Amino acid sequence: MSSAAAASETTQNSDPYIQSLFAERIGGANYGKSTEIYKFEKIKRAKRKALADHPERQLLDFGIGENDSMADASIREVMGREINQVENRGYADNGVSEYKEAAARLMQRQFGVKLDPETQINHCIGSKPAYAMLPACFINPGDITMMTVPGYPVAGTHTRYYGGDVYRLPLLAKNN
User: Fold this and answer.
1) Per residue in 7-19, is it b (16+ CB within 10 Å) or e — as a string?
2) Which of 19, 36, 38 is nearest to 28 (CA)?
3) Which whole-number Å values give the CA distances from 79 to 41, 83, 101, 102, 143, in the listed order?
4) Where are the domains of the chain?
5) pLDDT in tens, 42-67
6) How far apart are CA 7 and CA 59, in angstroms?
7) Rounded distance, CA 129 to CA 154, Å?
8) CA dist., res. 156 & res. 149, Å (int)
9) Residue 114 CB-half CA count within 13 A
10) What are the beta bridge partners of residue 170?
11) Digit-coded pLDDT (tens) for 132-156
């Protein structure tokens, strides 16, 4: 069978070969087949509906991540200048020492906590990747992550990836 015919058969009659290789912790052969709407898309749809239903009201969005509006012009202006600077190129995979030192000073000044910048400060590209990695470090199958609801769901999602369970802590007035 030619490769074109094999590719055609794969797309018409079955899943691509790689579909059977996905890890069980992320759904195995069923990975990506769910019709469930991504949680942040649900939030965006609810936000659009609330704005459409009540255009006279201002929406105060305290959401985390997934920017859906343009950054301020002053920020875009500075970024436009800085992106062309040679010193701003390259990778900082292990964290920049100036950043780690500044973070340690901030923790000391704001919270009275003394940290070693080289061994106790870790950088990340955002809070979502940091929260997502915590279960990779601490969760074994059967372990539990306690998560507030509403709350930031990524730690719970990744807890389930690693075989753990999520115990939801509802933030309700009756629970104080």
Assistant:
1) eeeeeeeeeeeee
2) 19
3) 28, 6, 23, 21, 43
4) 125-171
5) 888 898 999 999 999 988 877 766 66
6) 49
7) 8
8) 11
9) 0
10) 149
11) 888 888 899 999 999 999 888 888 9
